[in-house]
Amino acid sequence: MPKTDLNPSLKAESIPDPNRWKALVFIALAQLMVVLDATIVNIALPSAQQDLGISDANRQWVITAYALAFGGLLLFGGRIADLWGRKRTFLVGLIGFAAASALGGAATGQAMMLGSRALQGVFGALLAPAALSLLAVTFTDMKERAKAFGIFGAIAGGGGAVGLILGGFLTEYLNWRWTFFVNIPFAVVAAVGAYLFIREPAGGRNRAPLDIPGVVLSTLGLVALVYGFTRAEGDGWLAASTLGLFAAAVVLLAAFVAVEARVKNPLLPLRVLLERNRGGVYASLGLAVISMFGLFLFLTYYLQIVKGYSPVMTGFAFLPMIAGMITGSTQIGARLMTRVPPRLLMGPGFLVAALGMLLLTQLEIGSSYAGLILPAQLLLGLGMGTAFMPAMSLATHGVEARDAGVASAMVNTSQQVGGAIGTALLNTIAASATTAYVASHAAGATNEQLLQAQAMVHGYASAIWWAVGILVISAGIAFALITTGRPGTTSVSSGDGQGAEDEVRIPVVAH
């Protein structure tokens, strides 16, 4: 009598999905679309503002409306992915993002433009955590996981710079509306590919009822935090409106933590956040993104205003950073991830990036691109790429399947909030240093235009010093909190005090 398999379901689940590498292509394409949108609109904004009659006071809302909706709803989007299923949420996010982009490209006025940007943020908050959690549950083999997250990390790290290049091309040679319309083919191809090739493992949903108080408190708290930093850029750090928003954010987020510790089915289970390795990733990654997004802003203005580069030339000027990120992520991070502890990739990676930033503190009006900016970008890209790759994997690895969506959302939340904070914080520092430089040098100046340019570059260099310090802190957090080692450790406690059932299994070889 032939021998039968007593547990065929387990055997089937252990077989890797034969379409997993095809699925990766479409997951990565969707992630690229979301990351591109964070910067591609920046270059097109002056043209869009003129065509649609958007006032100077309201133009920031083209960026802010997206950031508020995206950053504020990410945790909710991650929980929806766990509840609905990641593939379904991924497809809804893609279709909605494409529709919102079409609305933005066809905008006839200010209200239509701002509404479309907010809708993009809403659907992006569904799409981004679904993409990362699909990657986490699709690739379970350690070596394959390293390669997959290497590709994903390179896209997450370098997509913003790619957005500057693409935005420059579309704005200069076509029309600013194409910075929106370009999302439609991305989304259609990704949706068709996802429908055909993505297979979500069974049994990974979290069907518990939604934590409505958690949704409300987290969304309002994150919106207040992001909006507070946005207002600080224009109104000043000590303005009543700014301080009021920060105070509201602290109260709302503290209430959110208190609720999550007590409710039966929390939006963000504290076991996800309090495990020290993932907590270290969220903190170090968020701080590092503060530095990177601030630099995108400064270099874009420096190259276009001080050096006189066109939008396309400016985009190409960021290519060394993209090349460095891809190399660091796929050739360094992915190759070493299965051999060394993640802190020995993340910590040194952030320090190499800090060295690149340190070079840029020497920025002057006459600085050579080849002699200063290019090597600084290469170092920054190599360091960030090397650090991003293990960070993306470690932030989702070892979580229970029911928490994969919300753990993925936390990675995106740390990056989105970090980007919003970085733009506002470093831009405010630069503006203050520029004003102080003009005030102290105005008496002896003979060329006002030259003085303004010198003051602007001085402001950028002053803010970049802060970015250097932030990256060093990121490295310190990675070294101190990320303690997962080489093969041999079987598990770490989640630290939430709820006993063995909440222990988080981490096969360290993956890191």
UniProtKB/TrEMBL annotation:
Alphabetical keyword list: Antibiotic resistance, Cell membrane, Membrane, Transmembrane, Transmembrane helix, Transport
Domain spans labelled Major facilitator superfamily (MFS) profile: 23-486
InterPro entries according to UniProt: EmrB-like, MFS, MFS_dom, MFS_trans_sf, Sugar_transporter_CS
Predominant location: membrane
Gene Ontology biological-process annotations: response to antibiotic
Cited Gene3D superfamilies: MFS general substrate transporter like domains, Multidrug resistance protein D
Protein name: MFS transporter
Protein source organism: Streptomyces finlayi
